[in-house]
Write a structure and sequence with these properties.
7-stranded mixed beta sheet, globular
């Protein structure tokens, strides 16, 4: 195994390559039991594992997290007809993004390898790389029911981090050559955590499929957090003509004109592509950003914002019982380019 100057990837409560689940004897456990054991252990650490609930004007916000996996309910709304719409911000390993994107009832935006500076991406991979928690033994089929033994698992973790170090080395070399981040970042993706905003009125099938013992352990880990957050969260009643507004705080609604609030919300959802949620809270800029990208045909952020329909069974895009902000706009000219 090639030895390189390994970048520090310490996590809270760990030193070097010692991970917080190393004392769990999972070698002979099937995959579903390993995930359960890991979750139980992680929830014992109250400094790193938690469930936070805050309440603003009767609207409860829920966060459920374990280590780098995280789920925040950004907005949870129910119409007078009983149609529920929930928006979550989730953090999960980049390697399962494709599987997450197969669920067409989800509206989503996520952090972009093309938008985030390569220097920042490299720093993420150095300090907080994704490292598998479950090392399945080679076998036929899509799922690994049995894990390799403890000694081999330690070697696997070291090999994985060696691969991370090589990816960082060559990404830095390509950056020095002047190669654009949209290409260089691809080398780092197996070791990255992904942040995405997901909105939907339809969750049952996702929870059924992705919390199953047959699901990939990484997918099951985030799906169970999402299910827990969805069950804990208390939706806010929203009347027709009012809006489901992720990332717009109650106190901000007193300042932002009602006609601008949907655009501000969608603009903030769009910012997840380059992870600027905490850096900027100028609602004028958020509104202008959204209106500008909408004119260009980039309209996926407008799907997170919606108003109740009179018929809870009526569909608007991929939402049932809610009309998306996107559907209030005329479709862009196809000759000007494909919409997003």
């Amino acid at each position: 195994m090639t030895n390189m100057n390994r970048a520090n990837h310490d996590r809270p409560g760990s030193e070097g390559n010692v991970l917080p689940w190393d004392d769990i004897d999972t070698a002979a456990m099937p995959a579903d039991q390993v995930v359960s054991a890991l979750e139980a252990r992680l929830r014992e650490d109250i400094e790193n594992i938690g469930q936070d609930e805050t309440e603003h004007n009767g609207v409860k916000s829920v966060e459920v997290y374990d280590k780098a996996y995280e789920c925040k309910v950004l907005a949870d709304s129910v119409s007078p007809e009983g149609a529920r719409l929930t928006t979550m911000e989730v953090t999960f390993p980049r390697i399962i993004l494709a599987e997450m994107n197969t669920h067409r009832v989800f509206s989503r935006n996520s952090a972009s390898s093309r938008a985030i500076p390569i220097k920042k991406r490299i720093e993420m991979v150095k300090k907080h790389p994704y490292v598998p928690q479950y090392w399945g033994k080679l076998q036929k089929g899509m799922a690994a029911d049995e894990q390799i033994d403890r000694e081999l698992r330690q070697q696997a973790e070291e090999t994985w981090l060696d691969a991370r170090d090589h990816a960082v080395k060559y990404a830095e070399e390509l950056a020095i050559l002047g190669i654009h981040k949209q290409t260089v970042s691809r080398l780092l993706e197996p070791f990255l955590w992904q942040v995405a905003i997901i909105s939907s009125t339809e969750w049952d099938n996702f929870f059924r499929l992705r919390t199953s013992p047959a699901a990939q352990p990484e997918m099951r880990a985030i799906a169970e957090l999402m299910q827990e957050a969805h069950e804990i969260s208390v939706p806010n009643e929203v009347e027709p003509g009012e809006w489901h507004l992720p990332l717009v705080k109650y106190e901000e609604k007193q300042e932002i004109p009602p006609e601008d609030q949907p655009w501000v919300s969608a603009g903030r959802c769009a910012r997840v592509s380059y992870m600027k949620q905490e850096d900027e809270r100028d609602w004028h800029k958020d509104r202008d950003l959204c209106q500008n990208i909408a004119k260009m045909g980039h309209r996926s952020p407008l799907e997170h914002v919606a108003t109740p329909l009179e018929d809870a069974s009526e569909w608007s895009g991929n939402f049932r019982g809610w009309k998306q902000l996107r559907k209030t706009m005329p479709e862009p000219d196809r000759e000007e380019g494909a919409e997003a």
